[in-house]
Amino acid sequence: MAAxxxxxxxxxxxxxxxxxxxxxxAGEIRRTELATFLRSRRSRITPADAGIEPGPRRKTPGLRRxxxxxxxxxxxxxxxxxxxGRPINASVQVLDxxxxxxxxxxxxRWHLYRLADVPGVPAGRAAQSLPDDLPRVLDALDPFAAxxxxxxxxxxxxxxxxxxxxxxxxxxxxxxxxxxxxxxxxMGGNTPLREPLLLxxxxxxxxxxxxxxxxxxxxxxxxxxxxxxxxEFADLWAGHQVAEPAPLKKRFNCPPxxxxxxxxxxxxxxGSPEYRMISYLPATDADAAKIARLKEIGGVQYPAExxxxx
Length: 310
Hints:
By secondary structure, this protein is of the alpha+beta class. The chain has two domains: 14-115, Orthogonal Bundle (434 Repressor (Amino-terminal Domain)), CATH 1.10.260; 134-297, Beta-Lactamase. It has 13 helices and five strands. The protein has helices spanning 26-44, 65-72, 76-83, 92-101, 106-115, 134-141, 160-165, 167-171, 179-184, 198-210, 217-229, 231-238, 285-297, and strands at 145-149, 155-158, 249-254, 258-269, 272-282. The protein has a five-stranded antiparallel sheet with strand order 2-1-5-4-3. A hairpin with a 2-residue loop joins strand 4 and strand 5 (272-282). Helix 2 (65-72) crosses helix 4 (92-101). It is elongated. The chain starts with 25 loop residues before the first helix and ends in a 13-residue tail after the last helix. The model is unreliable at 1-23 and 302-310 (pLDDT under 50).
């Protein structure tokens, strides 16, 4: 089969990429992504949420298209075309009206702007090298763990303490040098961080960043391959949730020192809009003592076939 005729086999319940040519243009992918995102947001708003009487024999989950159009003050045909992924233009004012009806938060609203290709909204940039002094900053933070991620959670750099906390990621290469890959796919005993509430948040951050990289072969291949090996990731990705980075509490399971509770802080890297430096601070003095012990004994050794608990 010719390369241009190959299609994805990604199982995406949201229908974003199914049957789409690997080489489809960014505009086509963006419009398809926009259409699926709008449908997913519309389905979660009930008539009661929008102040509408549901009426009898209602089968549509969430609002109907004509209800969104009426509440937003736009034409039904125009909104239908927008949700069908047709090549039409939308102003910020009109998109704001749609976002208001669909009760989008700030992260979702910016995601909508990017998918609609609104002029002036930051788009993706070519991959950039890290600032020359960033490795020195990471080392200066030691013994506090710190690392740098890009928009899809490829790990670009880390200091020695972070490498002790997450050795599987620090030693990985290629597609596996990615936090999402390690958390969803590489569960062979080398993943110390496994928190149910953290995973959806990370996927939502990557989903928001994806709007800047529609059609990017590196992103498309990553999403396809991770979805193929993790139905959990595929389901979360298909949910179209978007979020911005935020301070978090994380729990690492690090034999033989045990559980480590950490709080994170996230900082943008100058000149690289999607690069984030994440620092990890021990939650208590006891956690700090465990880190000191971990550095003393030389890191974490996981059994080959067991998954860390906690």
